[in-house]
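Exercise 3.2. Students should predict the tertiary structure of the chain below and write it as structure tokens, then compare their answer with the key that follows.

Predict this chain's 3D structure.
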Amino acid sequence: MPMIIGEIRRHLRDNNSVRVSRSIRDTAYKALQVRIKLSEKLMREPTNEEIAKELEICVEDVNQALDAIQDPMSLYEPVYHDDGDAILVMDQVKDSRNTDEQWLDTISIKDGMSRLHDRERRIIQLRFFDGKTQVEVADSIGISQAQVSRLEKSALEHMKKYI
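Answer key:
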């Protein structure tokens, strides 16, 4: 039985998609030993800056090494659970500003913009991405406001086909 467990652990260690280099693991283990030594000496938890100073390496290396040896955590692991639904790790790290729909919208808009003529693309860029008025766009390009309005309308109709 112990031999089978050892083989399974070896397999998981060697065939894991996330590999931490030996030098980083060595740095992490040295940092852990120094942390224990400094905890006893200072009678408190030492900071990573203090550990780095003791090891004579930069703080970023200590941070990276200690982060690298952390066990991975499932996004579906509960962080808090009361009588109701559990709060998962995923709920804590979710990015509500960059949703899948926004990615698709961005790709569609870029595709639509790429199919416009240079002048139309410039007008759409100035109007909707740079926040310029039709009059400001007209002055910038050197045409009338009415022409900007017509070109803008035409460009938006053309873009709708690809969005």
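Discussion points: The chain has a mean pLDDT of 87. The first helix runs from residue 2 to 14.
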